[in-house]
Structures are given as structure tokens and as C-alpha cells.
Amino acid sequence: MFDPAFLLAGVLNGLLAGGIYVLVAVGLTLIYGVLHIINFAHGSLLMLAMYAVFYLWRLIGIDPYAALPVVIAGAFGFGFVLYRLLIGRYNHGRDENILLITLGLSIVIDNVALLFFGGDTQTIDVPYAGTFVEIGAAFLPLPKIISFGASLVICAALGLYMAKSDMGKAIRAVAKERQGARLVGIDVENVFAVSYGIGIACLGAAACLLMPTYYVTPSSGHAFVLVAFTIVVLGGMGSFAGAAVGGFIIGITESLGGLFLGEQLGQIGISLIFILILLLKPTGLFGSRA
Amino acid sequence: MSRALLLCALGLATAIAYPLMVPNYLVTIGMLVFFTAFIGQSWNIAGGFAGQTSFGHVVFFGTGAYTSTILQVTYGWNPWLAWPVAMAAGGAVGWMIAVLSFRAGLRGSYFALITLAFAEVFRILANSVPFTKGGLGMLIKADPRPANFQFKDPIWIYYLALLLCIVSLLIAWQLTRSRFGARLVAIRENEDAARALGIDVFAEKVKVLTLSGAMCAAGGTFYAQKYLYIDPGIAFGVDKSVEMLLVSMVGGAGTIFGPLIGSFTLMGINEVTRWLASVVPALKNVQPLSLVVYGIMLILIVARLPDGLMSLFRRKPRHA
Lengths: 290, 320
Hints:
Largest sheet of chain B: 2 strands, antiparallel
Order of helices and strands of chain A: HHHHEEEHHHHEHHH
Distance between the termini of chain B: 23 Å
Strand content of chain B: under 5%
Helix content of chain B: over 70%
Oligomer: heterodimer
Strand order of the largest sheet of chain A: 1-4
Shape of chain B: globular
Distance between the termini of chain A: 40 Å
Largest interface: A-B, 42 and 44 residues
Radius of gyration of chain B: 19 Å
Helix content of chain A: over 70%
CATH topology of chain B: ABC transporter involved in vitamin B12 uptake, BtuC
Strand order of the largest sheet of chain B: 1-2
CATH architecture of chain B: Orthogonal Bundle
Number of helices of chain B: 14
Order of helices and strands of chain B: HHHHHEHHHHEHHHHH
Number of domains of chain B: 1
Structural class of chain A: mainly alpha
């Protein structure tokens, strides 16, 4: 069990999974950092995007990686409209209100998915799924490596967009000081909607990268929501660097937990990290405020 | 006030007479209404009155269900004797979560999320440790004798649920007229202001979560005795947490009758969708359809009617 090659394989697999978690968590942390809301529907929206990828493949035969631009654009539009119609209207008052509204949203999405898509587990058979790459003593599936690379590229592109574009600057300004941003003429409501849209677009990208190796069921969102929150809390709510580091740590934790504790008990690591971080260092690794 | 008293007496008389006049399946539905109102009230005491929104209340429910079932199945205890122990265990878990979370200063959404994580830890443990028999779940041997907390005639379990519901209503009523309740409301409305007034915010919040945990655990034992089976997904799954939160929010969080009204409403929706499903063959899947309606109701209530359906019955409009 303590064979180093075995351990290395576990760590590498965890890193690869973590690369995609980063994308999910970046979306969540962006929404939190800018809007100061906790988007409990994050997992459910990811599940919805995964079904979109699945049906694009099943009905039109589009490869999940080729679907990236379409799904990202679609997810952005969906998020933007969702913010305008629902989230933005009630984004005031007690902070639990929006948590409850997004909980309601996730209940609706999960069960609409169950009604329309059925409860069966769906997977995509890509021709390259069985291709493995040998790294050291570890055999890693090719799609996981592609997804990992693509995820890092997308995160870098998003980072560049946030740093250089006018909208990116406006988003950062609103995140830092929304009153001040409003005073210098930034349309704050529009920035909120765009930020929410980008957060959901990250999920669209993650869905494309997940589908070649993962499966989707209507309860998939549920499996991801606590993982995503754990990453974001671990890294520090609102911190991009934190989401990246947190994503890798959680990916490796999950992989090694499964290796040493088994499929069932291995999942406990994520929840325990979540609890311990909140209790001991609620600002996370990179967060500036509680 | 006397009018309210009259209404209560009338409601109670109807509730007592009801099972004598309807077929068995309607008795069971009535039982479920009161049982859900009871566990909803346990959520409401912490989440409604004290404003400590929890997403993982099922952790107390499952603790109660497993404690009494393990004592009964593994150690041969009488379930009536195991019941108070289960409540104590639920109270202890409530106390522990409260002390840990509130000492760390968690509030609002963060408290909600950490309760969810605690429930998840308990679910995974119940799935993995030997004394809960893991994912197989635990079966209680059927032996329908009242001395054994099992009843042949559904009417008795109905009356027991009604009794639990009445006790929970009395507890909530007590909260609206006691200093403890007033302190909880002060904490809900503005924690810092409450502290400035000299309220020991930490102690009060620990107290209310302990009470709420013990109540919810009582519901867990009741559930296990009714269905004679529990597994980690039932006992610690997120569905029950959401159900407790929903009935309180829909009926009116922080009100005495909120959870009962909410429970009636959700059961009504459930029956309507069941009927719809029998008429429209495309909707054969009843469970998700009711849940879609519940989710929409939760959104509408939080957005438009934060005091829940109860506020529709109030004569004077209340301004927060």
C-alpha cells in the first residue's frame, strides 16, 4: 500500500482532477468575490451544463472538447439571464436570503433534470478514452491530461481578461469597492450580471472537460457542491490564487483518501477539511477577510 | 386572544376526531403532516426564532434514529427507554456543533454550510463504521406491541405524532412569551445590538441549538420506530434537512404555527401532484414534480413573502 509508485499515481490522478475543480471553484469564488453571495446552485448548474455537453454529443455528435465554445457561450448567457431575472432582484437583505433562493433554485434544477433526463447515469464514449500516457510508473488517461491542460489555459485566459480588459478592471473595481465603482460611472448591476455569467461560463467549460472521463446524473451537482465550497473556503473566499491552490489540494486529498480509506470513507476528508478551515482559519489560505 | 384559543380548541378537536372518520391511508397522511410539522418546528426554533439557518439539521434526526436503533437492536433496550437517550444524544451533538461553530464566530451562510458539512461527515461515518452496519442500514424486528413502541393500528402512531406536534407547538408558544425567546429574537434581528444590550449571545445560541437538536432527535427515533428501518441516506441525507427548512420557511419561520401550516401545504402539493401523475401519464414521476413545486415555493417565499404563509392570516400588516 505504501509503494511509492502507487502513491505517485494517486497524487498525479488527484492533480489532474484538481485541475478541473479549479475551474469550478474559480467560478464560485468570482461570484462570491464580486457579488458577496454564496451560490448554492453552483453544483446544479454544473450538472445542467454536463447534460448540455452530453446531449450535444448524443444528438448532434459534437465532441465534448469541440463543444467548449458553444457551451461556454451558452452557460454565460444562461448565467447572465438568471442573474437579471432572479438573483439580482433579491440580492439584498440578510445574506441567508440569497443562499435560500439559490437552494430553491438547485432543488428546481435537480428535479427538472430528473423529470426530463431520467435518473440513469450517462457517459460519453470518446474514441480516445482508452488511450493512456505513461508518466513514471503511473498510467494516466489521455482525456484527463487534455482536460487538465485545457483547464489551466482557460484559467490563464480568464486571469488575463480580468487583468487587462475594461470589463475585467470594472469587475475588480466593483469587487473592491462597489460604492466607489458606482461613483466613477461603472454600471454596477451590469458588472454583477456579467460576473455571474462568467462564473457560470467557468462551469460550462468544466462540464466539457469533465464529460470525457466522468459521468452525469441529476444528482451530480450535489456531489460537486461541497467540493467546490471546500476549495473556495480553503483558498479563501474571493481569492483566485486560493481557488487554484485549493483545487489541487482537494483533488489530491480526494484521490489519496480514496486510495487509503476506500471509496466510502475516503470522501470524509473533504468535509473534514471544510469544517476545520471554517473553525480554525475562516479566511482560508489566501483570503483577506472573514 | 380568546378567539385564537377557540380556534386552537376547534383544531385540536378536529385533529382528534379525524382518524376515526377516514380510511387508514388518510390517517397515515395525517400522521406525516404532524410528524413533519414536529421536525420542522425543531428547525424553526433555531432557524426561525433565533435566526440560525441550518442546512444540515438532519444530523440531529439521524443521531436520534441511530442512537435508539443501536440501543434496541444491538443492546436489546426497550425503545421507550432508548428514546430519552436518543434525545440526549441529539442535544449533545447540537451542543457540540454550536460550541464549535459559534466559538469560531460563524454566522449566517457560513453556519448554514458548516451544518451541511457536519451532516455529511455523519453520513459518511454511518456508511463506514461497523456498529451502524454501514450502507446496509439497520432493521428493527417487527413486534407490534405498544410496550415495544410499535403499533398495529395506524391510529396510535397518528395520535403519538399529534402529541409530539402539540408539545412542539407549546415549546414554540413558550418561546414567544419567555425572556429566553425574546433574547433569541433579539439575536436574530441584530446580533451586535443584542450583545450590546448585555445578552450572552454565545450561551443563548448554544442553548437553542441543544434544545433544537434534542427535539429533532426525538423525531428520528419516532421515524425509526414507524418504518422499522434506517440507513445512512435516510438518516443523514440532505433531503430531510431541506424538508425541515422548507416547511418552516413556507409556513413562516419564527412563528408558532409556521411549520404546521407549511407541513399541511407541502402535503397538499404532494397529493395534488400524485393525482396529476395519475391523470397525465407523462408525469409518472411524482417525487421530482412535487420537489420542483417546493423549490419554486421556497424561492417565491424568500423573495416575496419572507414571513411565510402565516403572514397571510395576520390581520395587521407587519413591517420589519
